[in-house]
From TrEMBL:
This is Cell division ATP-binding protein FtsE. The keyword Metal-binding does not apply. It comes from Oceanobacillus halophilus. Keywords: ATP-binding, Cell cycle, Cell division, Cell membrane, Membrane, Nucleotide-binding, Transport. It is found in: Cell membrane. It comes from the Bacteria. It holds the Pfam family ABC_tran. Residues 2-228 form the ABC transporter domain. The keyword Cytoplasm does not apply. It is a peripheral membrane protein.
Length: 228
């Protein structure tokens, strides 16, 4: 469902972040992206949700070639992809409920559907009782669970997570992994860039290691493979 073939990415400053990457990821997989800082992990992730365009090669997601997609079609692609960030990116003035509903309101869902779906995803992340809170009234782990709820509210086929536990303590990180696993159990593909050796070695999944812009390793139930 995600097919990258010979993908290159050179930024405007001349830095080549990806240098010929080919990989297939099937629907329902849970994949960690690991590797040293500056290796190209974020670039890899950004290409998938079309935050950046490839300089060469093809990226096909659900039969759409991102190398050729017109700008006005990007929002359609994004409906199939939920994104979770290290720093949560919740809107501070909105309640939890509104932060999640916002993702649906922009695609013109009916109020009744919005309400039903927001409450459903709050149930999935175990925070139905926090609907009226604002983000600053929640712990970091709770904020990240809300951002996961927001990412899945459109029932995307893919959830991308760029260092989702980077700002969280170890116990809270485990909670986030369990939440992502439950999202994955319902058939959603998860692609997660991480520096957490503990998580990768504890919750065994496919591991794709990127080093110097190429895939250095691709293993089912792999290890983190670096010292922290
Ligand atoms: P990682 O996520 O593994 O740390 P990145 O994909 O962020 O790696 O970066 C890969 C390389 O591309 C690095 O050399 C980085 O400095 C460079 N890079 C990343 N984003 C940009 C950008 N927007 N403009 C120029 N260079 C960038
Ligand atoms: P339950 O399904 O458990 O009865 P409710 O649907 O009554 O839960 O709502 C749970 C929480 O979500 C409550 O705190 C409620 O105030 C809040 N909530 C529901 N709808 C909205 C809304 N449109 N805007 C803000 N908060 C809402």
């Amino acid at each position: 469902m995600i097919a990258m073939k010979d993908v290159y990415k050179t930024y405007a400053n001349g830095v080549t972040a990806l240098n010929g990457v080919s990989v297939d990821i099937q629907q329902g997989e849970f994949v960690y992206i690991v590797g040293p800082s500056g290796a190209g992990k974020s670039t890899f992730i950004k290409l998938i949700y079309r935050e950046e365009k490839p300089s060469g090669g093809s990226i096909i997601i659900n039969d759409i070639n991102l190398a050729e997609i017109k700008e006005k079609k990007v929002p359609y692609l994004r409906r199939d992809i939920g994104v979770v960030f290290q720093d949560f990116k919740l809107l501070p003035k909105l309640t939890v409920y509104e932060n999640i509903a916002f993702a649906l309101e922009v695609i013109e869902e009916s109020p009744r559907n919005i309400r039903k779906r927001v409450m459903e995803v709050l149930e999935v992340v175990g925070l139905k009782n926090k609907a009226r809170f604002t983000p600053n009234e929640l712990s970091g782990g709770e904020q990240q669970r809300i951002s996961i709820a927001r990412a899945i509210v459109n029932h995307p086929k893919i959830v991308i997570a760029d260092e989702p536990t980077g700002n969280l303590d170890p116990d809270t990180s485990l909670d986030i992994l369990r939440t992502l696993e439950s999202v994955n159990d319902s058939g959603t593909t998860i692609i997660m860039a991480t520096h957490s050796k503990e998580i990768v070695n504890r919750f065994k999944k496919r591991v794709i290691a990127i080093e110097d812009g190429i895939i250095a390793r691709d293993e089912q139930r792999g290890e983190y493979g670096y010292e922290v």
